[in-house]
Design brief:
- It is a single chain.
- This protein is of the alpha+beta class.
- It has 2 domains: about 10-115, no CATH class; about 155-255, Alpha-Beta Plaits, CATH 3.30.70.1570.
- About 30% of the residues lie in helices and about 20% in strands.
- The protein contains 6 helices and 8 strands, in the order αββαααβαβββαββ.
- It has helices at about 10-20, 60-70, 75-90, 110-115, 170-180, 225-235; strands spanning about 30-35, 40, 155-165, 185-195, 195-200, 210-220, 240-250, 255.
- A 6-stranded antiparallel β-sheet has the order 5-4-6-3-7-8, with helices on one face.
- Strand 7 (about 240-250) and strand 8 form a beta hairpin.
- Helix 2 runs antiparallel to helix 3.
- The longest helix is centred in the N-terminal third of the chain and has 16 residues, at about 75-90.
- It starts with 7 loop residues before the first helix and ends in an 8-residue tail after the last strand.
Length: about 260
Amino acid sequence: FDVLVLTNLQGDIVSDLCAGLVGGLGFAPSANIGDHIAIFEAVHGTAPDIAGKNIANPTALLLSGLAMLRHVGLTENAAIIENALLYTLENGIHTGDFGDKTKAPVNTTEFAEAIIGNFGKNPETGAREIIPNKPGTPVPLKLETNPMMITKERGNETIVGVDLFIESGEQPVAIAEKCKRHAGVKFNLINISNRGTQVWPTGSVYTNLVNQYNVRFESIGDEPLNQQDVIGLYVSMSGNFKICSFELLNMWEDKKAYSLAQGQ
């Protein structure tokens, strides 16, 4: 393939795997071209274990720099440098992370000096065409306001409940009894979970708990609620518990826009 379009996570994995096939992360450049800024950097992260030892492979950083040169129109300079790099590699000059292990590696400085010494030379395979420079920096669009991404409307949205995340060192049954007193005429206490595991209305005494619970209330008969209803429940519950946060439970038309709790 000439181009693979992947999500961020899969792109990260594939780029690492491909880099491994050609010698390691020391060969993987990257370029991020945005509407208003462009960033060029090596894919690899920091390597504190070799910091200050002058043994790092600079190829990925160099290739990222070449992408930057092409981005600003310095195509001739980029081609000369890349051809020198390829010529150097063809001649077996390498840092310690790749190459023929029977041939002594060079350090970072020596590798860079070898590339500089090969300016004007072309590799036998993969030589880059020399294209005259056309210097120019893309002018970013001047923004007057912040960009705003609007979520596409998904039909009629209603509130049908709330997850309250509370702090408590009490047992689930004791928490449930207190919560029921705050349910009022609009809410039902549905479920209490701890670290994602249901502990009420059913649960195991062998479940190890922490002092933070998720308490789920839903409206009686899935009747629509409003934010004032939820805030009223929040205020009432705050008389017994420290509430860390809450999440609304929404419906889009007839579809639940939230995950069912364990046991539901």
